[in-house]
């Protein structure tokens, strides 16, 4: 049971890496907390459900469509919201309030449009039955989703470390003011990062029905809490630290489910408290944290 | 007698005559309820609210409901607030319905969690709570006359059908070891505890796994692996629709086979669970057969077929409102309230209670026999055990298998088919 729980935790954690990755990218670049991140994820799930039910589009091409559409949607949303926020004295706190409101609005509108009934995608689309990984029986869709997460992490890594735009993005992450002083168009860089973040949330949403069973308009809030725990454990503001946070969360959750199942929902909060007390810079962070 | 004495006598006589007359009929009967448009209980709350709305709409289309104390039909006015699945919000809103809106009829939100906060508030204000589907046993006590459970048997009684089934048919089919996995909330937690109690009391099957998980659990793969390690013959999962969908999908993906698999909402919200888990994950599983899926004989109100047709007309398929047990319970509760108003001796809350209790044992509605015990808990409307069979490649149909008096087919144990 122990080995099975650990292996399942790693795979499950890789999916939650994808869930938290975009949230961390936005915090790293813009120093704001997008509390509507989980709701964009939920919208990605509904988009995949709609694309399948209305047009018969498989989740994989649907993921590509969602990625592009959500990235494009992120650009005007950024210019509408973020620059104004950042002109405020306490932009981090204001971002919490504003995106919380946006989260509530998205949930309410989605409820009106699609109702509260659970929606999902047929499991057979990503394969039915178990896959044996290191002796552990894992659902094929989990392995599939974890693989997509790994590709997304690799994509973000290549973007940040192998492209000019990525270099500029990292410069903004280090110091927004210095980046501005050196002539970097910080709004262009940030808008693209915001778009990527929404795109990643959208992809995570496409696979949510396979990982979470089903989606409803209210899943966003819970996912936000988990995603926030993942990125704090990993390191706030460091997108690649999210991998560490995701795996720690996944393994811890599976161990909790195995040995203390009734208490499993305390895990995100326990991890948050433990990391903030013992290592506030996160498991992957340096000693001095800018947040 | 002087003039003053005569006038006093006249006033006394007049006040006696006019005082004896009934109070003037109100322009409307106010029905107050809560619903959860968002949050974890939206899936069971919204259909129930839609059922209540349908009842009010139909009643008003017929000129209102007949209210005996006023000897006339009076329109209903539905006052409903959104508690967003939040118990604190619900508590405030229940208070508002009673103290600000002065509703004559108070109906709780769906399910035990959102009903739990209504029980003490209604009791404190001496307002009868029409408990829609909160089956939690602690709600009912001898010293609280201000509650009646309209639908579903009380949670301590409900699981007896399954325990009897396992001890009888299951035992003969070779079921010896049972695993129970439940969501830790008032409803499924009490249900699991009662079920385990019945099984232990019978002393036949051994419970080899009995674990609770948070109600917001969405991944069951490791839990199923852990259950499989205990080698049970029967696996009973008790949760809300989201739990059941996630569980059934994980079970299918795991490749594990058990002789008997039970989910609660596989029957209660069959269409919703079908949409999430898919037919192949549900075929062969056992569940309770709710009234929405069983053709009870009625002596009051529409049959389930007639109600289903009315429901589809009001909420066409694809409108986002799923047909299922919760909608039926909301509507049926309205029907019983309507009957109580037509027979109540007065409009006080205790008069209404007396009227509802007078209906106990006399009504057979589309939800089954309406029977209350002395503390207001429902002891009729027992849900038969059923099994889901394939109905084409993408659908399932429920077959009642126990008790024999209600059975419409024989149970099939063994590895689940359809995979």
Q: Give the number of domains of chain A.
A: 1
Main β-sheet of chain B, in a few words?
A: 5 strands, parallel
Largest interface: A-B, 47 and 50 residues
Quaternary structure of the protein: heterodimer
Can you count the beta strands of chain B? Answer: 16
Q: Helicity level of chain A, as a percent range?
A: over 70%
How many alpha or pi helices of chain A?
A: 11
The largest sheet of chain A has its strands arranged as: 1-2
Number of domains of chain B: 2
Q: Report how far the terminal alpha carbons of chain A are from each other.
A: 39 Å
Cα end-to-end separation of chain B: 98 Å
The biggest beta sheet of chain A is recorded as: 2 strands, antiparallel
- Look at the structure and give the CATH class of chain A: Mainly Alpha
Which secondary-structure class do the elements of chain A indicate?
mainly alpha
Helix and strand element order of chain A: HHHHEEHHHHHHH
CATH topology of the largest domain in chain B: Rossmann fold
Question: β content of chain A, as a range?
Answer: under 5%
List the helices and strands and how they pair.
The complex is a heterodimer of chains A (291) and B (419).
Chain A: H1 2-30, H2 37-55, H3 59-87, H4 91-114, E1 130-133, E2 136-139, H5 140-162, H6 164-174, H7 176-181, H8 186-212, H9 219-234, H10 241-259, H11 267-278
Antiparallel strand pairs in A: 1-2
Helix pairs in contact in A: 1-5, 1-8, 1-9, 1-10, 2-3, 2-4, 2-8, 2-9, 3-4, 3-8, 5-6, 5-8, 6-8, 9-10, 9-11
Chain B: H1 3-20, E1 29-35, H2 42-61, E2 65-67, E3 72-74, E4 76-82, H3 87-99, E5 105-107, H4 112-116, H5 118-124, E6 129-131, E7 147-149, H6 160-172, E8 177-183, H7 186-202, E9 206-213, H8 221-229, E10 234-238, H9 241-254, E11 260-263, H10 265-268, H11 270-277, H12 279-282, E12 286-288, H13 304-314, H14 325-343, H15 349-359, E13 363-365, E14 368-370, E15 385-390, E16 396-402
Parallel strand pairs in B: 1-4, 1-5, 5-6, 6-7, 8-9, 8-10, 10-11
Antiparallel strand pairs in B: 2-3, 12-15, 13-14, 15-16
Helix pairs in contact in B: 2-14, 6-7, 9-11, 14-15
